[in-house]
Structure formats: C-alpha cells, structure tokens
Design brief:
By secondary structure, the protein is α/β, with parallel strands linked by helices.
C-alpha cells in the first residue's frame, strides 16, 4: 500500500506543479508564458547539476590525502570555477550569478527580470552549445515581477539536476508534462512544437532505433529524439549508440528543442533556418538509418511552386496546395539504402486522388517502399481533430535481418483504440502500443507468428491495393461491412439459415421451393442441405452475399459446363483492377446506370409533405435492406416539383454525406434528400448485383467521403466515377434470376416487420 501511495505521489507531482505555475500565469498568453516557465526549469536543472558536481569537486580538491588535493586557495578557486572540469562530466558550467541560489535570494527584487536575463547571457557565454538558445526577455515591463519571483520560489521546491533526480528523470517528466499542457492551452498552435507521448512512443517502438543516425526534419521540441534515446537505454544500449540530426523552421521551437535535448545530455545536430526543410535543407547530404517525424498536416503554404523540378520528387511532383507527399518523398530521399522511416500524416494521405497525389502514392507503393500503415483514432492531437495515420517506409524489404516482405504491406486499423483523458483528448495505453508494435514485429520478423485479425490487421499484396486504386486505408481491407460472413463456408451459412429461419407468411413455401431449385442448378455451390422454413433478412442477405462473393470476387461462377470458372482454368485478362474473366469489363457506376442525387423540397411549404410518397433520409437507411418506411413522406405536389429526382422501385440508395457508406434498396417509387446518391440501374445490370457491389465498396465510399477532412462528403461526380468489375450479360442475368427469389422473401419480411412496428 505504501509503495502504491509513493507511485501515485510521483505520478501527480507534475500536475500539481503545473497547476501552481499556471495559476501564476494570470492573463499572459500561453505561447509567451511557455518560454518563461520552461527557461526557468532549464536553469534550475543545470544549476542543480552544477551544484552537485561543485560539491564533489570541492571535496576532492580539499582532501589532503586525495589525488586531487589543491592547497593554494586561489588555485582551488580556479579549479572549482574551471568550465572544463564540468564539461568533462557532461555538466554545464554555471557562473556564480546564474546559480539558482543567487536567483532565489533575489526573487523578491524588482529587478529580478534583469537578473535572470543576465544569468542567461552568462550561461551562453560560458557554454557555446547554448548560444542563441536560452530565453532572455524576463526584464520586459509587461512581465509581472512579483509573479515571476513566486514562480522562482515554486520551481525551487523541486530537485531536478542532482544525480538521484536525474536517475528518476524528474526534469524530463516535468518538461514533457509542461510541454503537453502548454500545447493543450495553445490549441492548434501547440501542435507545432509537441507530438503527444503515446504517438511518439508508438513510432519508436515500431521503428526500434537501436543504433545509427536518427533524423527528424521537422523536429519541434525534440520529442522523437528523447523517446529514441529512452528506447535505446531501456533495451540495454548507450546514448552514444545513436546520433541525432534535426531541422526546425520556428526559432522559438528550435530553442525548446535544444533545451529539451540539453537537459538529457543528448548531443545533437539541430539546425534552424526560416526557410524550412524544403527550401533550405540543412542536412542535404545526410543519409539516415531512421527518419521519425510528425510534419504539419496538409500544409498549403510550403512554397511548392518554387520546387517543381526538385530532385527529391522521384515519385511525382507534389501539389503546391498540400505538402503531404513532399514530406513523404523528403523522408525517403534522406534514407540509406537499408533505412526505415516512421511518420505521422493526415488521413487524406492514404486515399486522396486530387492533384496527382493518388499517382504519387501508387508510384511509392509500386516501388515497394510502404511497409506498414496504421490508422489512428481521433482526438489524439492538440492541433487538429482530424484523424491521422502512421506510415512506415522501408528501403529494403529483403534485409537479411528480417523476413523477405517484398510486395507485401501490413495494414492495421487502430481507430477503435485509445481512451479519453479529457473531453477533447484521447491517448493510447501502453498495452495498446505494445499490441500494435508487436503485431508489426510478428509480421516482419523471421520467427514471427503473425496472423490476420479480422477488424484489426491484414497483410495485403499489391494486387489487393490495385482494386481500390492504391488507397491504403486499413478499413478498406480489414473490415468489409459484412466481414463476418465473407469467409464463412457455405455449410456454415446454411446452418445459420436452418437455425434462424422461421415460418412467417402463408404462401412463402412456394417461393422457398423455387429458390431451392435455383440453387440446386448451380453445381459450384453446395446448397443441397439448404432448408428455407422462413426468413430473417440479415441471414438471407448473407446468403446472397456468399453467392456474390463466390461469383464476382472469387470468380467461381458457373461456366458453360456448369463448373466453377476459376477452378476450371477459365481465361482471364489484365485490367486496371487486376486480372478479370475474359468477357468481363471494368465500368464506372455511371456506365452501369443513372446516378441521381436527391433533393429536399422547400420545407416552408407544408403542402409539399404529408402524403404517401417515401422521402428517404439517412436515418431511414440504417440497418435496412429495403426501405419500406420513412420518417417523412412527400405529397404529390412535393414530388412533382422535382420529377427528375424520382426513383423507381429497386433503385440502389447510397449515403454519401455525413454518414457515407450506407446502402439500401427502394421498395416503391421514392425520393431522397441531397445526402444520398442513388443508382437507377440499366436494364442489363441487376440491381441486386449493384446492391452488393455498393456494400463491398462501402468502406471505399467512406474513405472518399472523408478525404482527410472533418467533413464527410462524396459528391455525385466522384461517386459516379467509382469503378466496378462487371460480368457479361449471361452471368448477370443468372445472378439476377436467383436474387429475385431471395430478395422477394426479404422484401415481404421487411413489410411484415414494418406492419408489426
């Protein structure tokens, strides 16, 4: 119990210190106050470390029996104040008037601001590595000197730089906690200098930077480097096993980084310039073993127009309005032939096809550089509510250290992970970080025991990605919307039917018999044991999808000899969506039918509503196959003013705004609102085929509807351009005949359920 209390005390002291410091902030802007507080914390740390080394040195030179005894007082004084004596022990030399004891004695003086500025100047003069790093604006009139003195007294209550507290990383914890709290207080601006700890830890745990050059070209306050050093030490290595390189375009953030690394004894080459990594690459010739970074999301002001022919754009010139793929290619450019990179990007990077981004992503995938993608939950970052993802790049997937992963990519969907730490912010637990990183290592390592986990992870090949236009969103592959039945055997499905179907309506027996006869005609499907007593719609839908999957995904439709096409060596041809049966085609949705975007009649005119014409909205579509009941209904007048928006029975409705990806069929002539695109199929295209095709594409529709922003919206034009693999007319007709019988039962049940409601 005592140990638990001590641990709780250790966990909470940063928070208590923060609350006390924040209370003194008064009305000062967080961005300004940040440098005041963190500068003083840094000063307290190096002063503590200096004092401890000073006492040790004093003891050594005062010991008459010791090897370092110095008798002459002046010589002793000079030894105790020799900066080299401290640098040799990795300690900064602190002049007398910069020491914390001196500052605390003068904390109540009205000139305390100038005393601190002078102390910072003296520190920089005596420690060249700190030149230009420390804040020196404590004397400005706007800074309340009484509160400044109180802040000095508060920080003086904690030990930071002595050996015991260094071993506990007390300063590191305080510094990181304060950075996080300031990032929270600053909101969007805070994300410019701080990446949440759980994200940094996940990146490092997956990359495992044991030894070599670590590079972050947008390094913020240096959190990636700190976590990398921690990783090395935890796994028995030494700080010197990795060398650190970074670049930052914001000078005040660069100062935070330099201080953050200095307090941990991390020697680093961190460069600053106003132009930034694209226009003025400070490490132009660097080839690093590890790149680890969190660049600005969707940066539109990266001066891309000045860099159209840059040598870094090997896989395509990035759009001038978005720097995502400029960053990706910058990272790749700075890797050694066996280097690896892990970085954060906005979700749009996985799916965007605008301004050539889709082509760049395709080229990077075809170059076999993408090793892993992790989709993250929302609310992880301080500067955006947009969900983000992690990319992992490997220049050599056939490295002898790991198994040969050529042509493979691991996709992980972690969007359901994390826990809320407050109303606006979420973080990943250590257990979740371990789960994600171990999944990756089990997939990558020679002796790993990786298995796909439905809904979480899937190892895919390039041909799998081609079907979805090289979209890398894990949800497209690890989830199917009806994934529970995708891999069920047909025996399992029929057993489900036998268990769940109950007799529901007189006259349904005849329909069941006809359907059984139809299924028996299909030699490639073993439905001899199917017994249709009555119907529960989700089970019948599963049965229909099982047939759809076998025919149109597995290509095991009955050939002209009534045998499974693919297993019977049916001929295929190459298409933009991969190999497809010889007589089949790739078509857009608009080539398969008419796309109609709904419309809402004026609501001010009540005469437009209230009769019996269904007006479908997204809530009406949830968990429905047929929409037979709607919350709102139009009058004939309301329908007549938008005659072109009328949908006949068996139109396929797909939600494309706000909640994209819902799919259902109309049960009678209907209308929809503008959040729904509907397909009125051509005569040679089965609406049941289109229904299942849209169910399969539902995750792609969600992805295209998001596009890397918080607003979900897939417009009619982009919706109509989605491509499908379409069978020849004979197979389409056979499928339609079978589905007519099955969907008749579903429709009857849907109407019955509505009547019961």
């Amino acid at each position: 119990m005592k140990k638990q209390k001590e641990q709780t005390k250790e966990i909470n002291f940063e928070d208590k210190l923060w609350k006390a410091a924040d209370k003194m902030r008064n009305n000062m802007d967080a961005a300004e106050y940040k440098h005041i507080v963190l500068g003083l914390i840094f000063l307290k740390y190096i002063s503590d470390a200096f004092e401890e080394r000073y006492k040790t040195l004093d003891k050594e030179v005062s010991d008459k029996k010791g090897a370092y005894y110095v008798a002459e007082p002046q010589a002793k004084y000079e030894t105790l104040n020799d900066p080299d004596e401290y640098r040799a022990d990795n300690v900064f030399y602190v002049p007398e008037k910069a020491r914390w004891e001196y500052l605390q004695k003068n904390a109540k003086q009205p000139i305390i601001g100038k005393i601190i500025d002078d102390a910072m100047d003296e520190l920089e003069k005596n420690n060249p590595t700190l030149k230009g790093v420390l804040p020196k604006n404590y004397a400005r009139p706007s800074l309340d000197k009484t509160r400044l003195g109180e802040l000095i007294d508060l920080i003086g209550t904690i030990g930071l730089g002595d050996r015991e507290n260094r071993s506990k990383d007390i300063l590191g914890r305080v510094y990181e906690y304060f950075l996080g709290q300031f990032a929270d207080a600053e909101g969007k601006k805070g994300g410019q200098f701080y990446t949440p700890r759980s994200i940094v830890k996940l990146l490092v745990e997956m990359l495992e930077p044991y030894k070599g050059r670590v590079f972050d070209p947008c390094c913020g306050s240096g959190g990636m480097f700190v976590q990398s050093e921690k990783f090395v030490q935890i796994h028995g290595g030494r700080i010197g096993d990795i060398s650190v390189y970074g670049q930052e375009s914001n000078q005040t953030t660069w100062r935070l980084c330099k201080m953050n690394l200095a307090i941990r004894g991390i020697d680093a080459n961190i460069q600053w310039n106003n132009e930034g990594s694209f226009l003025k690459d400070a490490h132009k010739d660097l080839k690093s073993d590890f790149v680890i970074a969190n660049p600005p999301f969707n940066d539109s002001d990266w001066k891309g127009e000045a860099l159209r022919d840059d040598a870094r754009w090997k896989y395509g010139a990035p759009p001038t309005g978005n720097a995502n793929f400029a960053w990706v290619q910058h990272f790749i450019y700075h890797l050694t032939p066996s280097g690896v990179a892990g970085f954060v990007l906005a979700n749009g990077s996985m799916s965007s096809n605008t301004s050539g981004e889709g082509e760049i992503r395709k080229n990077i995938v075809e170059a076999d550089l993408v090793d892993c993608i992790v989709a993250l939950p929302n609310k992880l970052f301080y500067n955006t509510g947009i969900p983000a993802c992690l990319w992992f790049i490997s220049r050599d997937k056939n490295n002898s250290k790991y198994r040969d992963r050529k042509g493979e990519i691991l996709l992980i969907d972690a969007t359901k992970m994390g826990h809320l730490i407050d109303r606006r912010h979420r973080e990943l637990s250590d257990e979740e970080i371990k789960n994600i990183s171990e999944t990756y290592h089990n997939w990558k390592n020679k002796d790993g025991k990786y298995r796909d986990i439905d809904g979480f992870s899937k190892s895919v090949l390039e041909e799998d990605l081609r079907i979805y236009d090289y979209v890398l969103t894990p949800g497209l592959y690890v989830h199917s919307g009806i994934s529970e039945i995708m891999d069920k055997s047909f025996i399992d499905i029929t057993n489900d039917i036998n268990k769940k179907l109950v007799r529901r309506k007189e006259g349904i027996d005849n329909i069941q018999i006809k359907l059984k006869l139809r299924l028996k005609e299909i030699a490639s499907l073993n439905f001899d044991e199917v017994s249709f007593l009555a119907a529960q719609n989700h089970t019948l839908e599963s049965l229909g999808f099982a047939i759809y999957k076998k025919w149109f995904i597995d290509f095991e439709f009955p050939d002209n000899q009534n045998k499974p096409y693919k297993s019977n060596n049916g001929k295929t041809k190459e298409s933009e969506l991969g190999a497809i049966p010889e007589k089949w085609e790739v078509k857009t949705i608009t080539q398969c039918g008419k796309v109609i975007c709904g419309k809402t009649p004026p609501t001010k005119d009540k005469e437009n509503y209230g009769e019996d014409i269904p007006f479908i909205t997204i809530p009406d579509m949830r968990n429905k196959i047929f929409v037979v009941k709607t919350e709102k209904k139009l009058s004939q007048k309301g329908a007549n003013i938008q005659k072109k928006k009328e949908l006949p029975s068996l139109s396929v409705c797909v939600s494309c705004i706000a909640t994209p990806g819902l799919v259902c069929l109309t049960s009678k002539d209907s209308h929809t609102n503008q959040q729904i695109n509907s397909i009125v199929c051509n005569k040679n295209v089965s609406p049941y085929f289109m229904y299942y095709a849209m169910k399969v594409k539902s995750e792609q529709i969600k992805v295209f509807g998001q596009g890397g922003t918080a607003t979900l919206n897939l417009n009619t034009g982009n919706f109509g351009r989605i491509r499908l693999i379409v069978p020849d007319e004979i197979i389409m007709r056979k499928f339609d005949d079978i589905m007519k019988e099955l969907f008749t039962i579903i429709k009857i049940n849907a109407k019955d359920n509505t009547q019961e409601d």
